[in-house]
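User: Please predict the structure of the protein below. I'd like the answer in C-alpha cell form so I can feed it into my own downstream comparison script.

Assistant: Understood. Taking the following sequence of 130 residues as input:
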Amino acid sequence: CNLGADTNNSNLKNNYDEIKLYSYETEDFEKTGLQFCGLMMGDHSKSGINTMFNTGTVVGVNTNIFGGGFPAKYVPSFAWGGADAGFTVYRPDKAFETAERVMSRRHVTLTDMDKDILQHIFDNTHPTNS
C-alpha cells in the first residue's frame, strides 16, 4: 500500500459506538464488537494526497483512491477514483504494470503466480463479472 501525504483515517466513531466492517462473505456491513478499528486496505492499493477515510473503511486490492471528500466505507478491488468523481475499473493489465514498477524499487519481482492470484480476485469479485 501507499498512502499519499496527509492521508488520514479515524479508528474511533464520534459516538463511541461499535464499528461495523464490510464483510466479503455476506456482502454487507457486520458488527465487529470493536470500539477501535481504522482502515483495512488490500495489497497494491494507494491513496492520493489528503485522502480521508472514515472509521472501519474496507478497501480491496489494487485500488487507487484520490480526490476530495470521504470515499465509501467499502471500496471494491480494482477501483480507480474517489468520492467526487466516482470510481471506474482499474484494469488488471494497468494494475500489474504499476505493481511491477512499485515492487522493482524494492528489488522484488511480481511473479506470474502473483498476477494469477490478483486476476482471480478481479474475475471473482469485480462487479462487472458478477
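That's the full C-alpha cell string. The radius of gyration is 15 Å.
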